[in-house]
Structures are given as C-alpha cells and as structure tokens.
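Following up on my earlier thread - several people asked me to post the actual chain instead of describing it. Fair enough. Here it is, all 598 residues.
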Amino acid sequence: MSADAILLSWLSAFAPPARAPIVEWAESNIVFPATNNAEPGPLVYKPYQRGLVEAFADPEAETLVYMLASQTGKSTTIDSALLYSMACDPGPTLVVHPSEGKALDFVKNRLDPLINSTPAIRAIVGKGGRTSGGSSVRHKIFEGGSLSIGSSYNPDDLAARSIRYLLLDEIDRYATSAGQEGDPVTLASKRTRTFSNRKIIIASTPTGKTTSRIAQWFLRGTQERYFVPCPECGALDYYRFDQLKWAPGKPQTAHIVCDDCGHHVTERERRAAIELGSWIPTAETTERIRSFHASELVSSFSTMESVAAQSEEADKSPEKKKAFVNTVLAETFDFGEEISLDASELQLRAEPILRPLPKDILFIVAGVDVQAERLEASIIGIGAEMRAWVLRHERLLGDSAGSEPWKALDVALGETFRTQDGRVLPISSCAIDSGYNTTHVAQFVAAQRRKQRNVIAVKGVSGWDKPIIRKGALLRGLTQLYLVGVDGVKAMIQRRLAMQEDGPGFIHLSDTLEPAYFEGLTVEKLRTKFVRGYAKMEFHNTARGGNEPLDCLTYALAVATVTRPSVATQNANTKQESIAERAARLQNLVNNAPASRH
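Reply from S.P.:
Thanks for posting it. Predicted structure:
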C-alpha cells in the first residue's frame, strides 16, 4: 500500500471530531490584522493548536502549561483563549509579561491591533459602564470583566485584587523576584484563589535545566506530546530531534526515521501526518495541570530542512546552541551545568597511548599556560570527528620572565611523532596564553614564527556568545593576538570528558599523566549567578588553583579548530595511500595470475 493510501485510510478512520465551542467561536470571530501576522485574516487553527485551545475549556484542568518552540503558534493559542474568555465567559483577567517594555509591546503590537481587527471584541471593550469606558493602555474594561497587563518586576501588578484568569507568558524570562515580594509566578497565582473556576495559562520556551520555571511546571502536569502516525506502518509516535537525519552540510536532505519500521518520512508526509495527530498524556498527575510540549518538528510554520539548517548553524557557538535547543526544540539546555566530572574516574579510564601513535591521529597541537615560576604545556593529538588524544602534559620549571622555561618549550615544540601507518607528524599549531608575562610571550611567539612554526598568542575571554577563536589586536606590536571564547570551549570539554565510550568527540587520556593532571581537568565547575534577576552561568575554580591542565587543553582544542595538517603530513598521507594502493594492485595481480606450468 502506498504512503498516500495509508494516509487516506487514516483520514477516513479518524475523521476529526466536532469542533469544541471555543474552537468554533475563535475561528468564526477572530481576525488577525495584516500589520504583524504572517497569515492575516480569519483565524484557522493548525491541528496541534486545536488541542491546546480546547484544553482551556476543559473544566477538569485548572492550569495549562505550554512548553513550546518559538514557531508553533504559541502566541496565537494564548491570544485566542484570552479573546474567547472576554467575549463568552468574562471575568477579571491578568496577563503578565517579563518586563515593562514587553508588556507595552504586547499591548501596542498584539493586543490593540487584535481587538481592532476582531469585531466581536471591538464591540465590547470600553463598554463596561465606567466613566470614559474605563479603559487605558494597560487596563481594558468590558461587560462582566476586565483585563490588566502587568510586568514580572512590578509587585503592584501581581498582588492587587482577585482575578479569575491568569495568563503568564515567557515565564523563563521573568524576574527572579517581583521587588521584595518573591517569585512572580507564585505571587500572581495567589490572586486566583478566590475563584473556584479559575484558569491559569503558563507558557514559555525553556532555558536552563535547573533554572527553567516552565520545565518544572511541565513535569508537574500530564506531559502531553503530539503523537502522529507513521505514513508507512501507522505506528504512533511524537517527533523527536534524534529521529531527524540528514547528510552533513545538506539540510535539504533532512528526513525523520520511524523507530518502528525505519521509513524515511518526507516533508510532505510529515505535514500530512500532523493533520492526523493528537495530544496524548505521557505522565500521571494528582494536580489539575495539563502540560504540553512541542518542538518545531510538529509545526506547520517550519520544515525539517529549516530545523536541520538551524542545528548546523547552532554548532558554530555555544550561545547559538543554547538558542537552538531552547527555542527550536523547546528543551532545556545548560553549558555543561548538568555534568559532574570526577578526577579519580577520569584517571581510571586512562589508557595506554603508545608510540608509534594511533593511525587515527591526523595532526598534533599544543596548548601552553604561563605562570610566574613555570610553563605548563599539553601535547594533543587530533583525529577526525573531533576526537582527541592527550599525549603528554609537561611542567617546564623556571622563571617565566627569564629564558630557561622558554628554551625548554622551544625544544618541545620541535618534537615529531611517528604514527602506526608510517607518517611523521610535527606539532602543527601551538597556542600560548598571554595573560601573564605578556612581553615574553609576544617575543617568544615572534621568534617561533621566524622559525616557520605556527605558534600563536591567545587570550581567554568569557561570555557564551564568543566564537571559539578569532583575531584580536597586535600583542606588544610584535605578533597577532587571538581571542579564545573559553566558556564555550570548557563546556565542550566537560561534555566530551563525560563521554563513556569512544566516538565522535571522545577525548583519550594517556595513563602516563600524573594524578594532578586529572585534578586540574575537574577543578572548574559551572555555577548560576543572578544578575538583575536573570540567571547567568559562570565557571568557578573550586580548588583555588591547579586548573592549568584545563586551560592548556582549552587553548589546544581552540587552535585545533583552525589548524590543518602540515604540507609534510599531507604529502606523507598521499605517499602512504599510494603505497597501499600499489600493494593492493600487486596482490590482485598475484591472486589473478595464471597457474604456473612447472
């Protein structure tokens, strides 16, 4: 049976139920203005939106939690529920936004245009019998009810008179505390207690694993997912990012793989399957909370190609990765916050890395940290798919303002390494921290570059939006300085060190490394710091020193991202491949040679 026939059979077997009154009213009355909507005109719900809106009219559900991606029509769902309550079941209502600016923007660019374009609402707003209609920019009066728009930072907006309807949008961007009154979500929710028929909507894209309010509320509810049928075998499942596959660099090849039959779901099939989907709870709860989660993979406003392209773009920086996971996948993300590394466990998984080195190593890099009385240097082998081998870590003792440790580093950087397949690898690149004894670093780097060695001076810069490595200014007028986004690289290192099995990104640790090396890899931990009410993740040294191994690895892996194997290495590879090809041809000739007559 063809995919089209299966989809048609699903359509006939699962004809859509009669529309609930809230859906029927909304699609008959709400008109979206052309000024700020991609699809202006009368409202027509997407299939997954109908279930979200119908839940608003569910008498058994007191609180609705929407943990949704940014391209799923979340705002449309919330706005239409608001207008329905105003027209059909009015009561005192409060809508809360993260800040004063966001609240005013909501009124100016969403609420007022929507009221003006929807005749059923335009006819009632300002008709509450109060003087001058009783309405203002952030307070609307209508028969039987009122609407106030507040900010999470203003306790006066959240703790005044009782309300029946409470709509909290983007709660993960709320202030940590509304003034001195505490959590704004809790504070606003208290205002609904006097109404037995209250209704609360809590919505947001998520943020960090331990800081996300919406994720915590989602787990308290029914945890409903939007299940769709496979067009090939009919199995029901909800689309997950790990099912999305594509050829690297070719997001247009993106498809979803069915877990049951392995069918490759095309974009056309995905859209058809979404028409047949349904929200299904995946958890039980004792509270009257219905919670919903959806990524862009269920969105009619997005495509699989778009999600794949955004994923590839997200790999360019940690900040882009966080934005992708939060807003496209609607999942929590932290820069390694959830990772706990133990030095003894890392040492236990250390392995022999013998010479000649593994043939999977393509080139060698080094990272150097400068201290007052020593230099510390790590030599790292780099392979395909971001694999790395920590070959050696050295402490080069001596005053770094003098010449002794720099002479030792010069010798170390001249070393070569033979691989199992016969290649001889020099150290292709070396990054040296210039934060201490800067002049000596600049002089050494300049001298190394005169020797045709690819040695650069680097400086670590904090911030999750910083690229892994980029050009800075001239250092002491002698050499180019490069800036390393250390937060993102360290978080990447933590994730890679936490891997338990060899694979892309795995970091192999030599069993010849000293115990202090493993301690140095684990002394920095991510901590949450609140700045003006917003959570900010920062690395903190938990041991007051001893983090040089982590710094060296950070600089080495940063410079590895812009390093290519040397010409000598490439020539060696080419030579080795030609020898292998010649051997194969000779073996083929031997195998196919005619039998001897003797």
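The chain has two domains: 17-228+279-303, 343-567. That should answer part of your original question.
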